[in-house]
Amino acid sequence: MRDPSELDKPKKKPARAARPARKAGVPAGDALQVEAFLRAFAAGEHGAARLDVASFADPMLRGIAEAANAAADHAVEQLDTSRQRVQVVTAGVDEAIEAMIRLVIQGDLSGTMRLGVSDAALTPLIAGIGQVMETLKRFVTEIREAALQLSTSSAEVLAAATQNESSTSAQASAIHETTATMEELKGASHQIAENAQMVAAIAEQTLTGAKQGEGAIKSFMSSMEKVRHNAVEVDDAIAKLSKRVERIGTVVEVIDEIADRSDLLALNAALEGAKAGEAGRGFSIVAAEMRRLAENVLESTKEIKNLITEIREATHAAKEASDGNKRMAAEGEQLGGNAMTSVSGILSGIQETSDAARVIHLATQQQRTATEQVVQSMSEIEEVTRQAQTGSKQATGAASELTKLAERLAELVKRFKVE
Amino acid sequence: MADPKPTDATGADAWYFCLRLLGARYAFEAPLVTEVVRLGPLTRLPAAPAFLPGVFTHRGEVLPVLDIGLLVGHGAVPIRASTRAAIVHCGPWKVAVVTEGVEGLVSIPRRAIEPPPAESSGVAEFLSGVGRDRAGTVAVLDLPRLVETARARAVPAGGPAA
């Protein structure tokens, strides 16, 4: 706003200078003088001598000359003033640019521009520079923040990359371990397969043994049945024997009775003989002999009776023993039945064991195949992991480089003082 | 053997009928015995003394049965199916004497008969002497006196058929 008004002033000079030129022509000499003066002034000869007013006769010309002089003086004065102002402004601009350059070089953006020269014309410049500085300050601040963020981020990236690297290496070692474990697992499953095969073989042997046991139990049970059958036969025999003995007892009773009667008869015969005196003597001897015989018979029957009693006791004992046999045989059969049930259970158990062992054998073989596949896959994964490890190492290097760069950037930005 | 009476005075052997009674051996003159029988089922007589446990029929005769054990004040002689009785004749009386067993005829010299112990109680009352043979001591009963005593004791209860 000030600039245009300042620029207007030089425009007035030609306007004022033109005026005397237009007024010339009335008196020739004086007018020419005035014209020459004005032309010279217009040509820039500001230091030329003023018109000698006193020499002008014409009052009009004099007045013109006076006015021309005054205009010239004024114009010169104005020109001087303008020159001085230009000088001041130039110095101010120089100072301002110099100060700005210095500030930029030093990186100090903290202060505001202060100039030794103060001129209204410089105000826009100073304001512009201030704006530039502000912008720069803002940029620097933003860059600083960005550098800080970059530093932080790159540190994070580095940390992440480092962690990634360590994770990858841990993963690699874990994979290695897993591979080793899988190898062991493979060995173990091989062992299991062998053991399962052995179990199956043992189960087969046991099955044979148990079947033999089953046969043995069957023959034992048939033996027990025979024993029971025999015991029944023995029972029958004992019962028959008992009946026979009873019959013998009856017969012996009869014999006893007969012997007793014989004895009685002989006794009476002896009495008769005694009555007959000498004549009955032989009769008495025979009777006595008969009595002795009868007594012998009685003694014998007594013995037989004792024997029968003994036989009765013996048969009773035999009956009891045979009953015991029957009981034992029944128990034996029951036990055999129990053993049979047990052996049947064992047989089915062994069959199941054998089947299970076979299944285990198959399963472990499959497991072996699967384990081998896993080992194969693990080695592939290991290769990939190794690559990932290399990549992550590179990433770590890059991240550390980046961190360094970010630090450097921060250092650089720090050179600019903002506050 | 068969002639005791003629040798009586000279002290020759005499025949005795030996039986077991009251757990001991007793004997009496063999000629008194007519027969030895098994004692069949007895018929008890009402109001008869205990030593006459009943009567039984033998060869058409009804004979009283005499239990010497009860007569002399000892226990009764057990009567079973096999129990033997000696049928004796003592004068007009014919009775069956219950025994625990009959040994038979034994021959004892009369000189060998010693007088009975001086007791007058129980069976000793009816002893005529004590003899000895190969089987041991044998007490000789005075059977006629014994039967007489029995008859006498039985009379107050009722007159016997004579």
UniProtKB/TrEMBL annotation, chain B:
Q: State any GO CC term.
A: cytosol
SMART domains cross-referenced by the UniProt entry:
CheW
Q: Which InterPro entries match?
A: CheW, CheW-like_dom_sf, CheW-lke_dom
CheW-like domain sequence ranges: 13-152
Q: Which GO terms describe its biological process?
A: chemotaxis; signal transduction
A Pfam family found in this protein is CheW
PANTHER family for this protein: CHEMOTAXIS PROTEIN CHEW, CHEMOTAXIS SENSOR HISTIDINE KINASE-RELATED
User: What is the protein name for this chain?
Assistant: CheW protein
The species this protein belongs to is: Anaeromyxobacter dehalogenans (strain 2CP-C)
